[in-house]
Design goal:
Elements: H1 9-12, H2 17-25, H3 32-66, E1 72-75, E2 78-81, E3 86-90, E4 97-102, E5 117-119, E6 123-127, E7 133-137, E8 143-146, H4 148-196, H5 202-212, H6 214-226, H7 233-255
Parallel strand pairs: 4-5
Antiparallel strand pairs: 1-2, 1-8, 3-4, 5-6, 6-7
Helix pairs in contact: 2-5, 2-7, 3-4, 3-6, 4-5, 4-7, 5-7, 6-7
Length: 256
């Protein structure tokens, strides 16, 4: 009979042999619900950090950049600035050229400017590397005017809702990664169980693999919340998870 709820491993997986025995012998399925809860909670610190960083950027840094953007009009696949000429957007802190707007019709290539983005009358080129750029022509269906007021409103909306909108995407991607990790870890668990001469169903080993991932995921989320960086994080996380899985199998061996 199941003794512990789906939430208990969030804490007990750090220290309790009982939770691992319960997961192995009393739980059913592959712990997908528990893994989803764990992953969703682990994404919260990163989402909050992104939200506050974005709000701070929009409040402190964006006004100086927006003030350099000219009033422009997209129409029929072309871009025209209200004030003809070349307009530059420069980072006030670093002095780096971020964007260059040249709608005069002059032949200008991305290689001629260090700007991260080059806007000409018919296309935009984005620098993706030291010598690599991606160029995109404007859609002929575009028809709107860019003003500083509209840019400011857009950035305010982005800062307010981007984290919430991206959170489900982050959870889905992280969940896919963790499911793959759990399946790979369960293969290692099968080998360890055979070496220990422990007879467990494969589903039980998958559940133990998921529970064993808890400490590494929780500690990773805590470091993200604190802004700390773990050197060789992948290696440390893998070693910690394998150690917990081996310990979990030993706990089940003693029970058996």
């Amino acid at each position: 009979m199941k003794r512990y709820s789906t939430l208990h491993p969030l804490v007990m997986a750090f220290y309790s042999p009982k939770i691992y025995r319960d997961v192995a012998y009393a739980w059913r399925g592959a712990c997908i619900l528990y893994l989803l809860i764990l992953v969703a909670l682990a994404q919260v610190p990163g989402a909050l950090r992104f939200h506050f960083q974005t709000k701070r950027f929009v409040r402190e840094d964006a006004p100086a950049l927006v003030a350099q953007v000219p009033r422009m009009r997209f129409s029929g696949g072309t871009l025209a600035a209200e004030e003809p000429g070349v307009h530059r957007v420069v980072d006030p802190k670093s002095g780096r050229l971020l964007a260059l707007f040249d709608t005069t019709g002059a032949s200008r290539t991305p290689e001629e400017t260090p700007a991260l983005a080059l806007f000409t009358a018919t296309e935009v080129s984005i620098r993706t590397g030291e010598r690599e750029t991606e160029t995109f022509p404007y859609s002929k269906n575009l028809a709107f005017t860019v003003t500083r007021e509209r840019l400011t409103r857009f950035l305010d909306l982005y800062a307010s809702y981007a984290a919430a909108a991206l959170y489900p995407v982050a959870v889905a991607l992280a969940m896919a990664f963790r499911v793959a990790q759990a399946l790979l870890l369960s293969l290692a668990g099968l080998l360890l169980a055979r070496w220990m001469r422990l007879r467990l169903p494969y589903a039980a080993i998958v559940r133990l693999s998921v529970a064993s991932m808890t400490p590494a995921i929780v500690l990773g989320a805590a470091c993200a919340a604190a802004g700390a960086v773990i050197r060789f994080e992948v290696v440390v996380s893998a070693a910690l998870t394998l150690g917990y899985l081996a310990a979990a199998l030993r706990f089940c061996k003693r029970e058996g």
